[in-house]
Amino acid sequence: MDFVEGGKSSRRELAELLREPNFDNQRVNDWFVAREHEFRKVRESAVGALAEAHEVLDDRQRESLAKLIERGAYFRGCHHGPYRSRTTEAA
Description:
The chain has 91 residues and is mainly alpha-helical.
């Protein structure tokens, strides 16, 4: 299961816990512990990928990547790519 699908599943699990007539502190705590374990795996993979990318990029490429991350356009939902626009996607 990938991280996105895992996130959907996790949200469903939390929603079900909140639907219960009685709040189960232990089960909700266990839910958070499981998410911490999942995130640890993602973090370890991300750190490894960043280390590999850093190693193969030259100074100019690293600067471009750093600016892209700093600007954050992709992370704010503006990830339409160079050949797509909101107008064409709505069609």
